[in-house]
Amino acid sequence: MSLTTYNLIWNFLELILPNYLERRKKSGKEDIHRIHERYGISKKNRPAGTLVWLHGTSVGESVAALALANSMRKNGYGNNGNEYFLLTTNTITAAKLIKDKIKKGLPAIHQYHPYDHPKFVSKFLDHWQPNMAVFLESDFWPNLIYLTTKTKIPTILASSQMSEKSARFWGSLGIFLAKKIFSNVTQVLAVDPKQANLFKKLGAKNIKSLTSLKSIAEKPVINQNYIYNLKKNLFKKKILLAASTHQGEEELMIKLAFLLRQNSNDKVLIIIAPRHIKRSLAIQNLVKSAGFDIMCRSKGEFPSKSDQFYLSDTMGEMGSLIEVSDLIFVAGSMVPAGGHSPSEAAQFGKPVIMGPHSEKCDAQIKDLVWSGGAIQIEKSQDLNSNFIQEINVLLNNPQKLEDMGKNSLIASGYAQQRADEASLYLLDLLKIKPNKHENVK
Q1: Which among 293, 339, 375, 399 has most CB atoms closer than 10 A?
Q2: 172 and 92 in contact (C-beta within 8 Å)?
Q3: Secondary structure of residue 86 in the 3-state scheme
């Protein structure tokens, strides 16, 4: 596929775009007051001064964008009153995350990114005229990147990676499109050497292997009162946190509970924190049907010393859950959901275990495994059994858990250093002299 062919497709899509956006509005996927931004039209003025554009489509990429913004601010950007960020996202959830940071003092403007018709992208670029563009993770819109490079704006792909499926497309059907796009970017900062080599094959010229910026996401807040109430009845109990579980992974926790019961081990509490809290009732029924009691956070309940399960079915308390836990199972990895980032657990210095499905966070988990802070179970016919047995062994080896936790924290600090390396490179391109500042939140 060539860029010309791609744009012919967009000429057709333009005709059906109003109906498509109307359906998205009705389903709550679009901000009804900001549809014009999808066409590259903004009602906000460009601030005078330097404007760094950071683009990330959803929450994961926005976390990476915020991590980079924080690192740039720590090193001097945005502290003289005329340096700003333009943060673009695709989803409403990501927009809320960004707007919350702006309210807390981030010198930034949020916009929904324009759809990739060259006409819309050109309007967007003409209005904002950023001094630098940084595309996070794997959101590679051809016109958004290509037209940015053609305006001579320094264009960086940061924390860059592709799934195997995306790599197959860009390396085959999309190879001509890839050569057109990636050959013009100023710099690719890939998450690891494997990804760096992939971008080289796709035509990128200046490539460096750093790390995933998701590895330095802001450390979640903790609630000391909640932590106290969680732990007050759990004297000498080990706590396993199953973080962000998907359907099929709670069943594995039940199998683990049966194994613990079989071994007469009543010194473990399994906390289930589902990815989607709307599954709360289904999880409660599942656990109860297996013969276990389960207390629920949404009901104001706390675990007793006799409980083996606790359900955290409220939002915004992951930091507290990680803080009290001895071992973190980062879920979405024992089912084909792509895995969730283990970085938050690493920031708390906690040992991590994950399954083989980690496509969305390969760089982070590989760094942790290499450091000795995490264990990743490999695909095999005995995958589920191996996973349960490994958790059982770890929970009975406090010294191993302690050593893994220390290694996990060291890996988290190393990731921060690599992110600072990225931000210093960007500041150099902007000809801004780095300053020493306290950490910015």
Answers
A1: 339
A2: no
A3: strand
Helix (H, G, I), strand (E, B) or coil at 311: strand
Q: State the residue for tokens 């297996």.
A: 290
Beta strand 327-330 with 268-274 is unpaired
Quote the distance between the C-alpha of residue 106 and its chain's center.
Answer: 19
State the Cα–Cα distance between residues 26 and 107, nearest whole angstrom: 32
Give the model confidence (pLDDT) of 275-305 as tens digits. 999 999 999 999 999 999 999 999 999 999 8
- Tell me the residue ranges of DSSP E strands in 140-180: 155-160
309 closest CA partner among 269, 281, 337, 339: 269
Shared domain check, 153 and 8: yes
CATH code assigned at 341: 3.40.50.2000
Residues with Cβ within 8 Å of 136's Cβ and at least 6 positions away in sequence, in order, are 54, 55, 56, 61, 62, 64, 65, 68, 158, 159, 213
Structure tokens at 45: 């003025």
Q: Can you tell me the distance from the alpha carbon of 383 to that of 386, in angstroms, rounded to the nearest whole number?
A: 5
| DSSP 3-state of 75 | coil
Which tokens sit at 320? 């507290």
Q: What is the pLDDT of residue 173?
A: 87
Q: Do 135 and 260 lie in a common domain? A: no
Q: Are strands 295-296 and 309-311 parallel, antiparallel or unpaired?
A: parallel
